[in-house]
């Protein structure tokens, strides 16, 4: 499905990048419309991602970064499943302002398309849901995720199927495998936003640097 076609179903996918996208998200938070839309759209990405992460990790005390956390939908699912040591990061402060209390230990306003101000080997797991999509975060962000993760950490993320090859995620994933930076444990199709006909690849990788 092209960016134009999918943008008719989900308008934010028509936007290109940067300030334009941030402004849209800021407006989307008014009267908590974002969370209401996710319920109406039957957005399953957070639940599917946490289910997959939990399948491969039984240590609930590990330090996890929810990258592109938005209003905390993935964090809520992680908490439900017993994960307690969570940080969240997003580029929209107004989205971060809507995160429920007591979900994350720390919240950071960061742009995942830039080098992030987080030390090497900080985390033991990363979730990233809904950010690898039209006009949002690009493949080099995966390099940063590996950098800030300890060896053997799990990175669980979604990629909108519509951008997988167009944005070069297929090449980046293979490059990271070829470089022995990570190994892909699972690569499956997610329902994601089935009500809108929008699917994603759901990927779980283990850092092997």
Word description of this protein:
With 209 residues, the chain is an alpha/beta fold. The protein has a single domain (3-207), classed as Rossmann fold. Helix content is 32%, strand content 27%. The protein is built from eight helices and seven strands, in the order H-H-H-H-E-H-E-H-E-E-H-E-H-E-E. A seven-stranded mixed sheet has the order 3-2-1-4-5-7-6, with helices on both faces. Helix 4 (45-56) crosses helix 5 (73-80). The chain starts with a helix and ends with a strand. Mean pLDDT is 90; it is low at 1-9.
Backbone CA Rg:
16 Å
Query: How many helix segments?
Result: 8
Summarize the biggest pleated sheet: 7 strands, mixed
The counted number of beta strands is 7
Return the CATH topology: Rossmann fold
Q: Label the overall shape.
A: globular
Strand fraction equals 25-35%
Please give the CATH architecture: 3-Layer(aba) Sandwich
CATH class: Alpha Beta
Mean pLDDT: 90
| Count of discrete domains | 1
């Amino acid at each position: 499905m092209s960016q134009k076609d999918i943008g008719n179903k989900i308008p934010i996918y028509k936007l290109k990048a940067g300030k334009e996208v941030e402004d849209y998200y800021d407006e989307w938070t008014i009267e908590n419309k974002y969370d209401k839309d996710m319920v109406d759209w039957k957005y399953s990405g957070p639940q599917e991602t946490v289910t997959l992460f939990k399948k491969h990790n039984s240590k609930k005390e590990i330090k996890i970064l929810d990258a592109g956390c938005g209003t905390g939908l993935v964090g809520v699912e992680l908490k439900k499943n017993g994960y307690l040591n969570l940080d969240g990061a997003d580029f929209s402060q107004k989205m971060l302002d809507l995160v429920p209390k007591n979900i994350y230990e720390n919240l950071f306003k960061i742009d995942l398309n830039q080098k992030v101000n987080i030390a090497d080997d900080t985390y033991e797991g990363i979730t990233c849901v809904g950010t690898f999509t039209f006009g949002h975060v690009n493949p080099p962000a995966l390099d940063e995720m590996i950098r800030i993760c300890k060896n053997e950490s799990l990175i669980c993320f979604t990629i909108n199927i519509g951008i997988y090859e167009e944005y070069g995620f297929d090449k980046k994933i293979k490059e990271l495998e070829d470089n022995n930076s990570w190994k892909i444990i699972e690569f499956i199709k997610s329902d994601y936003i089935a009500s809108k006909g929008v699917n994603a690849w759901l990927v779980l990788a283990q850092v092997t640097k």
